[in-house]
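Here we describe the complex-level prediction in full. Unlike the single-chain runs in Section 2.1, the twelve entities below were treated as one system.
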Amino acid sequence: MANVYSVTKIVGTSETSIEKAIETAIETASKTLKNLDWFEVVETRGFIKGGKVAYYQVSLEIGFRYEKA
Amino acid sequence: MANVYSVTKIVGTSETSIEKAIETAIETASKTLKNLDWFEVVETRGFIKGGKVAYYQVSLEIGFRYEKA
Amino acid sequence: MANVYSVTKIVGTSETSIEKAIETAIETASKTLKNLDWFEVVETRGFIKGGKVAYYQVSLEIGFRYEKA
Amino acid sequence: MANVYSVTKIVGTSETSIEKAIETAIETASKTLKNLDWFEVVETRGFIKGGKVAYYQVSLEIGFRYEKA
Amino acid sequence: MANVYSVTKIVGTSETSIEKAIETAIETASKTLKNLDWFEVVETRGFIKGGKVAYYQVSLEIGFRYEKA
Amino acid sequence: MANVYSVTKIVGTSETSIEKAIETAIETASKTLKNLDWFEVVETRGFIKGGKVAYYQVSLEIGFRYEKA
Amino acid sequence: MANVYSVTKIVGTSETSIEKAIETAIETASKTLKNLDWFEVVETRGFIKGGKVAYYQVSLEIGFRYEKA
Amino acid sequence: MANVYSVTKIVGTSETSIEKAIETAIETASKTLKNLDWFEVVETRGFIKGGKVAYYQVSLEIGFRYEKA
Amino acid sequence: MANVYSVTKIVGTSETSIEKAIETAIETASKTLKNLDWFEVVETRGFIKGGKVAYYQVSLEIGFRYEKA
Amino acid sequence: MANVYSVTKIVGTSETSIEKAIETAIETASKTLKNLDWFEVVETRGFIKGGKVAYYQVSLEIGFRYEKA
Amino acid sequence: MANVYSVTKIVGTSETSIEKAIETAIETASKTLKNLDWFEVVETRGFIKGGKVAYYQVSLEIGFRYEKA
Amino acid sequence: MANVYSVTKIVGTSETSIEKAIETAIETASKTLKNLDWFEVVETRGFIKGGKVAYYQVSLEIGFRYEKA
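The structure predicted for the assembly as a whole is:
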């Protein structure tokens, strides 16, 4: 009866903000995984072009609930 | 004469952004603590509903100055 | 022929957002360093005034490519 | 309307088990704090007497919800 | 001929003990993954209700051997 | 009967030494908290003025025993 | 349009060198995963027999690009 | 007159519980070392057989007092 | 108008104390860098000769303000 | 008279080995910095192409002695 | 009946490679310790002379089985 | 011909200063171990009595050279 969760690591990118990169990661994960429950930001990086942020690159651990059979 | 600070840990939440979650934490803390001085983000997490971010949950350490008696 | 990168640590500040603080750091660094390539956020802090965020202070490691002579 | 949590650090002890030390910490905290919500084990130590465990000493971070006024 | 292992992260829960939460995670993982070999506890958390532990929540990294084709 | 401890984080400052900053933190904490038992240094920082140390700033975790009612 | 990456953790082994263990892990992963992009070494261990290294065991996080549908 | 302690790292195993693995480590250490004083858990791992925990493997740092000559 | 800081890593040494090693590092840095603002101790090591401390070796991260052009 | 060292962070790359990447970083650094003294590996990463290691990318902290004027 | 292991920390050096430094550490340890079982690399450093690696210096934790009496 | 070092962990105490606690640890270690070479501070703690520091307790890793037979 006890809940069990699996945790997967996903990296989202965005040209505009950290939140947008997080949302991109979660929306992509939700296409193949069900019952997404929580996330934790584990790394915030980015790439630079011409002295400006080209895009943010945010690594998340995403937890999702195992379905009970 | 030397300053002494106390550090407390607060978790703020927001449906829209990391900054909003930080501000919510600080505004709540400022209702009961005086002389808030600095903060440090120690964890950025969040919850997911329907494949989207339900809310951000940001943990801060907040430093405040001891009042001199 | 192999690429070599140098990594420098810069702290940007902004009154409005974490992303703005990151961009300020990168734009300042790009005035004196060429070939900026990537960054990693290593610390997110800030200062508080009157129970509100006075400014965000974000520490970055910024990587840049050594020029080939 | 957003929830805000405070996090406090408590160390519980027990002569018999890690779980008992956790429960002792939480029960003691619940006498003075309301709305305890979650905990995280941050350190598991103990003392030794006569070549045996004298008692376990477990440090927890305990999160509790700020009451809405 | 060399062995290769994959590592997955699973969170088990239990109302009674840390060991029970670990076992629940491993038994659930063993339903879909073969050749489970080792685990490492990476986080021990829990939830609180009425001033008592409601359930333990233990995160494991679980290693399993790639089958040789 | 089991002992329970609470842990608080305090930052002391001193113009002369790290030990002085630690003692300032502990003496200030002892004015409002009873049964102080141990400390751990978690960060040693400082500020600079005119190419010299202006003051040391040492963060401590301080453990104190809950009184038995 | 933004890229999203998934990160998986793999452990490779080799009797001869750390690089060989890394390559074994990557070649095995590439049989079932497409678009492998980068890796990071997260742990270097090994086993000993008769006072000599029996084999190296290197844990990698491997990032791979989600295919755009 | 000041006390000095030495710290040694020991790994205990048990088929039944984390506490049993800790006690096994301490009892074995106490056969060759005198004046054992405290321990800290630094890693909790285990091995799996047939989809169940085969045994727990808990790494401790154990402190013991140098005898005064 | 926003302040930007650069962070450099310096190791000072002293035969007599940790504070002296910190001061040596800062005084040397101040000869070539302007606007030194803060430091953080990141490592405290030393060398031993004849069973005594030969010298302390303290690593600092030192922050200094970018001059506004 | 006390020695002071500066620490810089450099990333070397190599298609063949970790040691080669380290040597490339050090040889490049030695073209512009004098009195290089020690290094520490702080990150070992790499890029993958066609299911094989394209190149290793090793981050070093390199310490060098300040010249006495 | 349960196995107990002891863990010791050894630093090996080599002028040619990281693997050679590891092997030197293990072979030296095996002269005085029996039943060496596993190792983990905890630090990879080195010294530089004339703009080249003088030698690698690799720190290992080495686990060995307590003999059953 | 290559040097090999062993690393041991010692905790020194002192009523007066951190440096004194370090020296006490090293002097005690030098009575039973030869060729002590370097140390690294890994933890600085202490005990409190009557609102004042009772004694400092500093944990060191101490490296010493294996004698060549």
